[in-house]
Amino acid sequence: MSRIGKKPVELPSGVTAEVRGQTISVKGPKGTRTFTATDDVDLVLDGSTVSVKPRGLSKRARQQWGMSRSMVENLVTGVTTGFKRELEIQGVGYRASMQGKTLKLALGYSHDVIFEAPEGVSVNAPKQTEIVVEGIDQQVVGQVAANIRGWRKPEPYKGKGIRYKGEQVFRKEGKKK
Length: 177
Prior knowledge:
Blueprint: E1 9-10, E2 16-20, E3 23-28, E4 31-36, E5 41-46, E6 49-54, H1 59-80, E7 83-90, E8 95-99, E9 102-106, E10 113-116, E11 121-124, E12 130-135, H2 138-150, E13 161-164
Antiparallel strand pairs: 1-6, 2-3, 3-4, 5-6, 7-12, 7-13, 8-9, 9-10, 11-12
């Protein structure tokens, strides 16, 4: 029995959902998102709640049950409040700036890194050492933040690089003489 799957997803005011077969479409103030569930689960719309029910008791149906419910909840969260990942830059000479809709990163390479955000995701640099990635799709926001972090991951000796806000970097001691 899935503890996550059996809880229904509440639809807040201003959010509408439509279920057609295995596809759910959620519309809210920030936009519209859709999700297609596998054939192992059923999506049921009851007024202002969406329930996910397994079609059988197979292991795959039980696995998909909780995951599908979480995906539906992420759709609702995305169209109401959206998702946000904050990154911070540490290191001498490392900085970020916006040029129109592109992010320009100076990360110690011989060239600046120019990053264009994909459709549906906004990237902003409120300070030279901060980057904010926002959007309605949690997976895309996380992937964009990981791609930006991948240009200069935090190194373990001095901690320089791009890290998620609040991330603890494992530090190593330098070699001894």
